Amino acid sequence: MEKVTFEEIVESVIARDPRYGPGAYAFVREALDFTQRRTSSETADKVERHVSGQQLLVGIRDFALENYGPMASDLFQEWGIRRCEDFGEIVFNLIESQVLRKTKTDSREDFRGGYDFDETFRDPFLPASRVAELRRSQPPQPEQA
Fold this sequence. Notes:
mainly alpha; 58% helix
């Protein structure tokens, strides 16, 4: 039986769900590896462990800032990612394609309300005066449940 590549799986996922570009899937896979390595290095046994959606969101944030800096926001926009819930959709598309596994407690809800993209990926690279100006010009955001 011929082994199917990650890229071929992503092509089939995108054929079913075209919301996210191929780069988004490669990024999430790399960010997951990064998060698992970090999580396993924090434990004594150094075994790769399952990470929760919230742990993955932290890893995604850190991986993106470390590797893409101020370009992370632009890349996410290009790939169709606009909020943390999009990462959950990508993860569950990969679970449904049997690239990733989940536990009984994992759900898309784990990715809800993670962090604000502008605050996380744009604001750290702007002068403080510009961030303050942007905050004043934006209407207050409703709290997420």
